[in-house]
Amino acid sequence: MATSARTAVKAIQDIMRKDVGVDGDAQRLSQLCWLFFLKIIDDQDKALELTEDDYRSPLPEHLQWRSWAADPQGITGDALLEFINQELFPYLKEMPLRGSHPQRGQVVREVFADAFNYMKSGQLLRQVINKVHGIDFNNLADRKHFGDVYEQLLNDLQSAGNAGEYYTPRGVTSFMVDRIDPRPGETLLDTSGGTGGFITCSIRHMRERYVKTLADEQAMQAALRLIEKKPLPFMLCVTNMLLHGIEDPSFVRRDNTLAKPYREWGVADQVNVIITNPPFGGVEEDGIQDNFPAEFRTRETADLFLALFIRLLKPGGRAGVVLPDGTLFGEGVKTRLKQQLLTECNLHTVVRLPNSVFRPYASIGTNLLFFEKGTPTEEIWYYEQPVPEGQKAYSMTRPIRAEHFADCVAWWGGPNREGRVETEQAWRVPIAQIQERNYNLDIKNPHVAAADHGDPEKLLAELQTAEQTAAALRDQLKAILAEALLR
What we know:
The protein is α/β, with parallel strands linked by helices. The chain has helices at residues 2-17, 24-51, 65-68, 77-94, 102-112, 122-133, 140-156, 170-180, 197-209, 214-222, 231-243, 301-312, 325-329, 333-344, 406-412, 431-436, 456-486; strands at residues 188-190, 224-228, 252-254, 271-276, 313-324, 345-352, 366-373, 379-384, 426-430.
């Protein structure tokens, strides 16, 4: 089935490539996403109609997938385009919350708020619809394989311009979830959910290790929390949740986490687990920083999110967070944030990643910070994640994979990280040393000798000689040009 799932998706993409309205991988995936979404909703409706006597779909009958899409010889061409563009989409964007499960209608409305039909050929669109209709999302095996194929499509988004910002490499998410080890019933939050990679990885982790009964599954699903502010990843994320067997994805919220004032996040909002890769390297819209206390005000998103993580964790709660090198060595607001982090939380581990992990979207240094709230930090263990032997850097064709973290997992130690030892990749730094450094956490591996770049005085002399040679060549060129102009 996995092969046929990939074959079906490839066939759909090949049809879309013939359409002049669909431009690039991001638009193809967006188009595929809303079609998948409507087919999944209809398949779920059919299942709920069998299990609940009074179930009513949130969609009116004539707009349900089975009514307009199921017949392979049905509406097509300009009539299909007119139906979708002039009737289906306008209704879904403003649909009233009806039916026996109004939250399902809310999800549909939010998904279609910024959705768009890119295809211009009604005949090609009918061909795509027929392919999608052949998928039975109520078949668990089919849904699982399509979930895997869909995640590969999300992975491919890394090469689709700015869409790469929504995707964290699967190897990184798998490692972080494995180390955080979420359990069913623990509230789990991703504040910058993107396409949902951390949550779906956590779902797989819990199903493999801890979900044994229906009650376990229900407890797991009821405790998930995800916020994403941009329309494309939001739509991709909701569809991703449906493909991973989430019955009610209304926990996926379309919102800007940072727009809510810091002090309005109260005890009721606190969670057991935070796993996330917040946006960094950019700035938020004007006024967002004013939602935070004066000592934490900045336009750097990573810093604002870090302040919020500390506040949102319950006592005893734990977090795994991706942060840039700039957070580690920065001063000012960053220093105050790190001081609060180390005072209120135990930052027990920093995994330093190679710069190439997030290429091509970003090539700055990144780190995985693991901390628990409730006790101050006494020491920080650092682990430098190497690039595999025989490989100079990570890339799109050779990405970081979960197995690359095997040595780090082996070093990690027991449930309380007992048994750790210093190695060529791992070193320990006591809190006193951190304080002496004014909370600069950018501590290099002491077991790796600094590269010998030569004697500074000799290098300076060589630079001056090179500059003098370049100046002489410029003078010669000017003389030649001047002479040529006089002729």
